[in-house]
Amino acid sequence: MKILSFKLGGHVSFGPKVKKEEAVWDVLAIQNELQVLPSFSSSIVDGIALGFDFVEQIRKLVEAAEKSDRADSFKREFTVIEWLSPIPRTPKNIMCVGKNYDEHAKEMGAEAAPTDLMVFTKSPTAIAADGQTISIHAGLSSKLDYEGELAVVIGKRGKNIPKNLAYDYVFGYTIANDITARDLQEKHKQFFLGKSLDGTCPLGPYLVTKDEIPNPQDLTIVTKVNDEVRQNGSTKDMMFTVESLVSILSQHVTLEPGDVILTGTPAGVGKGMNPPQFLQAGDTVKVSIQGIGTLVNHFE
Q1: What UniProt keywords apply to this chain's record, in alphabetical order (predicted)?
Q2: Please, is 91 exposed, middle or buried when counting C-beta atoms within 10 Å of its C-beta (0-12, 13-18, 19+)?
Q3: Are 175 and 223 in contact (CB under 8 A)?
């Protein structure tokens, strides 16, 4: 199932993409008008905590709408909605993995890829949506960079999760662009400020449930700047796999439903080019991941 969050006329909702249509089912409207279920979460993060029971609830709502005599009234065309991040706000900081691809580590100047997990975080206020115009932050940075990444969305609370059970705690996947102010990283000698400027964590367009992506270690990642391919990688090249990341992180931090883990970026970032090419006002960045879609943002 491909789930998206949106706003229309001041009404915030979410739902699955309508099959073979450029539209979304407004499941909150379906529940409100048809009263299909005894109760239904009005928050996508609260719903995720129910695991695949949440997916089954959504399916029941869609089936009820389709059987009603006004199914079309519960559909919202993509052309009229404002897309929101599929996870509008995470329970804690977004957890990010650095230098998880060997070639990216090398282009960033490392003589060898790290043997231990490198983790930093981004503020939840950095979250942005597919299609959202993002500030170039000219007053703070002149070296804004892109990083296309697979993002993991946690679906179940867990601590000290064994690697062989890690996928039980995953609800699904989305696309992230881990936008980074390289000069702020250098100035502050750490990652948080350079990674947390407003709008520098676009997520979307969809949250795809894990049943649709049985092997997250075999997905292509392509990032384009103004239609020029900059990154063309595969998640098979991750040094720490999704199940390893979930397991290791859970040894240190209790994972919660709605937590987002950014799994690292392949080679091809602007800083790694010769000469470096950072984002400019007027640029458009597209990050595509097989099985999920394309995340698009314009910079001004």
Answers
A1: Metal-binding
A2: middle
A3: no
